[in-house]
């Protein structure tokens, strides 16, 4: 393919990674100049900024006033594992898995915690398990949005209000881009580096009153590491939910999160963020509808993610290749786009079917998504021609 055949317009920001994700529009390092660097996070300035991060999270995410919000170690993974190790074991548990991270929580429950009464409900990439089969007398662990499959639960209608068990929801690629029904969720976790484009290593743990009651009335049979301990003497450690973090947070990352939250408010809060992600995904959907060489990994539009948008190649010349051949094709295509500085990090997750994964969260501009799509088509045609020539 000649240079003349390539699209003239490139994305202004070629960052479409599904984590860490694109910074908010207009971000520069100047946004961090107010960071409390060189200061203790336990000093007044540090605790004030951490508490501000918690309260702004509550405002933007529209978290109920009686839910606790804490900043915890080790990103979303740390938050989920803290919840699982602290809360599970009192009653049987249903584990839902339809992509890589959900499968990871299954491993934690079955192989690490060795829970005897664990039931696994699984589905392949691009699908959901049968939500009507979930037993809500049990505790339930699930991802709201499958980051590596592009599949999300459509809403919280499958969760009964009178459930007896707790719902533990990994919402890391959903929070700030999808409506989370907190009345149906007892634990919600996410990390800063997803929809708001923050930096890694910090997780958020949101607890309902029901989850707090469990923490204060149930003691797991296994020992808990210090960074997992949410109670002391049978009572919740309230300081964790007032900015007194268990370990030392990065005050630069805190400042970056505060900047992202302020930007989120400036674009209309949660409704504005959802609208931005929806517009980005619609641009992809319109492109897919007009082109027959690729399609969504999730066949059902009702369960397609509006953040981690996963695509598969349907052209027979590529779809007919074995797994290794498809992976090589994707590597060549995405390598070309990266060399042209059009798109970085859009190959599908290593455990997922070969294809593309385009982050369409709120920090991405729709104009950049629209500029990317013709380049994907050009790169596909170029890579397919090279494949045919090699044959």
Describe the structure.
It is a single chain. The protein folds into two domains: 13-24 and 269-390, Aspartate Aminotransferase, domain 1 (Alpha-Beta Complex); 29-265, Type I PLP-dependent aspartate aminotransferase-like (Major domain) (Aspartate Aminotransferase, domain 2), CATH 3.40.640.10. Helix 1 (44-61) runs parallel beside helix 5 (251-266) and helix 6 runs parallel beside helix 9. With 391 residues, the chain is α/β, with parallel strands linked by helices. The chain has nine helices and 14 strands. The strands form four sheets. The chain has a seven-stranded mixed sheet, sandwiched between helices. It has a three-stranded antiparallel sheet with strand order 12-13-14. The chain is globular, with a radius of gyration of 22 Å.
What order do the helices and strands come in, and which of them pair?
Blueprint: H1 44-61, E1 68-73, H2 75-87, E2 93-97, H3 100-112, E3 118-122, E4 139-143, E5 145-146, E6 151-152, E7 167-170, E8 187-191, E9 202-207, H4 209-217, E10 231-232, E11 235-236, H5 251-266, H6 269-290, E12 294-296, E13 308-313, H7 316-319, H8 323-339, E14 356-359, H9 366-390
Parallel strand pairs: 2-3, 2-4, 4-7, 7-8
Antiparallel strand pairs: 1-9, 5-6, 8-9, 10-11, 12-13, 13-14
